[in-house]
Amino acid sequence: MRNAILILVMGLVLLPFPAAMAAGGGDIVFTPQNIEPVHFSHDYHLHVRGLKCVACHFQKFAKGAGYEMHKEKITKNGFCGHCHNGMKAFDLASSKNCMRCHKK
To answer: What is the share, in percent, of the chain residues with pLDDT greater than 90?
Structure first.
């Protein structure tokens, strides 16, 4: 009985660690057609800007949702444009900001 309680307590203590260790996601490079690749840093958005994963995932970028990003959707507050609208973050509808994400 004592071992069962110990295993239960250890499980409850260690349960949060896999999710915490997975947080970050690394960098992602999107490769749209006819334009420079888009570089996205999970680490920057999470650790520097202080965003939570749910700010994008399970709302705008539901895992496995099969979404397609298009400039028209992005500039109308879809996907990245939800925050990058000139109020929360730099405005990606402005051509002067293109190179902040589109890089070789």
So the answer is: 31
Q: Stretch 25-46: mean pLDDT, rounded?
A: 89
- CA dist 6 and 2 (Å) reads 6
Q: Which residues, including other chains, have CB under 8 Å from residue 91's CB and lie 6 or more apart?
A: 84, 85, 97
Q: How many CA atoms lie within 13 A of 92 on its CB side?
A: 22
CB 103 within 8 A of CB 37: yes
Query: What's the pLDDT score for residue 84?
Result: 93
Under 8 Å between Cβ of 67 and 6? no
Please give the structure tokens belonging to residue 103. 């890089």
Q: Would you state the structure tokens that stand for residue 90, as one six-digit string?
A: 């730099």
What is the model's pTM? 0.66
- For residue 84, what are the contacts with CB-CB under 8 A and spacing of at least 6? 74, 90, 91, 92, 97
Task: Measure the CA–CA gap between 34 and 62, rounded to whole angstroms.
Answer: 26
Q: Which long-range contacts (CB under 8 A, 24 or more apart) does 67-71 make?
A: 69/30, 69/32
